Amino acid sequence: MKIVSIVGARPQFIKAATVSRIIRANPEINEILLHTGQHYDENMSDVFFRELNIPVPDYNLGVGSDTHAGQTGKMLKGIEDILLQEKPDCTLVYGDTNSTLAGALAAAKLHIPVAHVEAGLRSFNRIMPEEINRIVTDRISDLLFAPTQTAVKNLTGEGLASITHFTGDVMYDSVLYYRERIQDDPEKYKTDGIPDKYLLATIHRAENTDNHEALKNIFLAFSKLGQDIVLPIHPRTRKIILSSIDMPKNVHIIDPVGYLQMMKLTMDASKVLTDSGGLQKEAYFLGKQCITLRTETEWVETLHDHWNIITGSDPELIENAVGIAPPSTPPQPFFGSGKSAGIILEKLLSF
Ligand code: UD1
Ligand code: UDP
């Protein structure tokens, strides 16, 4: 079975690392890896391939940054050319980025089956570009791999139950797998020059970066918190804050880090503040309380017992949330058993 897997952005490299490792171990699968080039900085792309032993992509379209239509359009053409050449039995797309949308659309138009990993996520907020990407991708896919029961319910509600499979979350597989590597050599993955006790933050969502008021409020809240905050900064955010925000002294900006270093930063943080989808879950898997700097989350399972608190960019809500005691109940097994990639392989083979 020939599969073309399509990736392009940081969280997709992390998901594909786990799925590729499992599917390539099966002799029946011939995986071709296509990188759209949506993310291209060394620390947004190459570092993950190197550190997580992801095979070198067979193709890199090098599309780079552009408007949504500009970027997606270039990807569509490039992906179509490769699919025509490779003639795979199936394409595998991940998550909800422009690379996901372009991959699914190019394949569906060529009548090549599309399998979507992390299907069924919904924020019910169409202002988010990711929400449009998810809805379209799920609608034109042939196999939907849902990471949670909420995702299954969303897809069922959209009439897609017959092609939906609950697999669990490949990011949970990933945390279980790589956590052991960190525990074997914790010093190796420590970040130099950061405080002993800190809050870990990331910000990159358009709803925060492209809204000056929201961004200003988040940094106002950070300043009022007074505690040390470590912020590995997404290039999108760096470009905007350099010219528009007076950085509070307690915020320590660092370059984006590799996945294992990021996991270690999460393990050692007192709490996490983020608008990232992936990091909300990793905080939950690693037993860290999360404050979500958005007005909703797709990962509603994490909200129980104040494991995850939604604040948007409201400074008062952020401050109050950081003051809430960490939960005394453990995280629950909403995200499968850590064997999601194996289930995905099984479903692909029997498709
Ligand atoms: C994209 C995804 C988002 C995902 C995020 C993961 C879409 C619509 N959004 O958002 O769902 O959460 O990736 O990180 O697909 N840039 C660089 N170097 C890079 C990559 C980006 O400098 O290697 C800068 C460019 O100025 C670019 C901006 O970041 O314009 C945004 O990049 P883009 O890939 O368009 O969107 P993300 O915000 O990364
Ligand atoms: N991440 C990383 N280095 C960083 C910041 C994040 O490896 O400097 C990881 C993070 O641990 C998670 C993934 O990137 O696994 C999340 O990606 P991102 O926040 O960019 O996108 P989202 O999940 O919101 O789509």
Task: Provide an overview of this structure.
The chain is an alpha/beta fold and 351 residues long. The chain has 2 domains: 2-169 and 336-350, Glycogen Phosphorylase B (Rossmann fold); 179-322, Glycogen Phosphorylase B (Rossmann fold), CATH 3.40.50.2000. 44% of the residues lie in helices and 15% in strands. The protein has helices at residues 10-24, 46-51, 68-86, 98-109, 129-140, 149-157, 170-184, 206-209, 212-225, 235-244, 259-268, 277-285, 315-323, 340-350, and strands at 2-7, 30-35, 59-60, 90-94, 114-117, 143-146, 164-166, 199-202, 229-232, 251-254, 271-274, 290-292, 308-310. Strands 3-2-1-4-5-6-7 form a 7-stranded parallel beta sheet, with helices on both faces. Strands 10-9-8-11-12-13 form a 6-stranded parallel beta sheet, with helices on both faces. Helix 12 links the parallel strand 11 (271-274) and strand 12. The longest helix is centred in the first third of the chain and has 19 residues, at 68-86. Uridine-diphosphate-N-acetylglucosamine is lined by residues 9-11, 38-41, 44, 65, 96-98, 129-130, 204, 234-236, 239.
Structure characteristics:
single chain; 351 residues; alpha/beta; Rossmann fold; 2 domains; 7-stranded parallel beta sheet; 6-stranded parallel beta sheet; globular; binds uridine-diphosphate-N-acetylglucosamine; binds uridine-5'-diphosphate
